[in-house]
Write a structure and sequence with these properties.
Number of helices: 6
Number of strands: 0
Structural class: mainly alpha
Distance between the termini: 24 Å
Length: 141
């Protein structure tokens, strides 16, 4: 019975973590207007649906690749190819984030959590630190 309860707790933690990360990613993409800004900079508004589809399909594909531990027999320079695109995405995300650094206070104000802002930030910080420590010492390996 305790194994079943432990599995249920792990499933809940995994689902909650996935929802938090996914929600944060969607919030960043929507609040920071990364896709519309990309279309604006490149003057390619007619391809906006393709950009959105590429983000969704790429997220799903690499999530399944990681989850099911798929491997690919690609040539060695393929890592540089994928790294280039990942770097472009992270760079655009970081640039957009620096433009709109006040995302969390605005979000807290909109959902009525102004009084709990410090607790929200501390929960995020301690969660990230604890998760990193657990990953670094290899508890879950």
């Amino acid at each position: 019975m305790t194994e079943w309860a432990g599995g249920l707790v792990l499933a809940f933690i995994g689902l909650a973590g996935g929802l938090a990360v996914g929600s944060g990613m969607v919030a960043f993409l929507v609040v920071l207007d990364i896709i519309p800004r990309l279309a604006q900079i490149t003057r390619s508004y007619r391809h906006m649906r393709r950009y959105e589809g590429a983000v969704v399909i790429g997220s799903l594909f690499f999530t399944f690749t990681d989850f099911f531990e798929w491997t690919y027999g690609l040539f060695p320079m393929a890592a540089a190819f994928f790294g280039l695109f990942a770097g472009c995405f992270v760079g655009m995300l970081a640039a957009a984030l620096t433009e709109v650094i006040n995302v969390l206070p605005i979000l807290a104000k909109r959902i009525g959590m102004e009084a709990y802002m410090i607790w929200l930030l501390m929960a995020m910080i301690f969660g990230k630190v604890l998760g990193s420590i657990i990953d670094w010492i290899g508890v879950l390996n």
